């Protein structure tokens, strides 16, 4: 079986999306030939999609950005539509993940993926909505416990050209409640703030974090 994993994250090979797919591919058998392609590359050269035209199934994975999807993912899907004949009749799976603890944030985008599969003439074989994925940047595998095992189970669904297991999708899509100790640490140590402050500094915009570029100021 030939599987193409299409990564729609702007972070490409250093993305949370890539880490999730590594969990899945690590348990796949030698009989499964996996080809990874990245939106960051495809958007520069859409002909890269021709390299996966012989695949039996496709897994598209991307992060939620402001209740939608990254612009680069939209461009990726437009490129896929231009090569529609490559994908016609093939199976397709989706994984949407976000930093929000509530997977419900991705419901609207999930509907879009189903419509996209229909427009492409592909067989929609399942979708995942998972919250809390930003921890993938820093936490070790054992932090995710059962979640990693569930993704391994989904990998076997793909290998067998089966729809995603219902219980597995429900498990990943449910809201995670933080324990008392974790809530105390987050509230009193500002760990969330420390993380986002670091991201702002890396991108050189920390000093502008309170800017209001779209604010309409009243005239005196």
Q: How would you characterize the overall build of this protein?
A:
This protein has 220 residues and is an alpha/beta fold. The protein contains nine helices and five strands, in the order E-H-E-H-E-H-H-E-H-E-H-H-H-H. The chain has helices at 16-25, 39-42, 71-82, 84-87, 107-120, 146-159, 166-173, 180-189, 191-202, and strands at 2-7, 33-38, 57-63, 91-97, 123-130. Strands 2-1-3-4-5 form a five-stranded parallel sheet, sandwiched between helices. Strand 4 (91-97), helix 5 and strand 5 (123-130) form a beta-alpha-beta unit. Helix 1 packs across helix 6. The radius of gyration is 19 Å and the shape is globular. The N and C termini lie far apart (69 Å).
Task: Looking at this protein, list some descriptive labels.
5-stranded parallel β-sheet, globular, alpha/beta
Condensed summary:
With 220 residues, the chain is an alpha/beta fold.
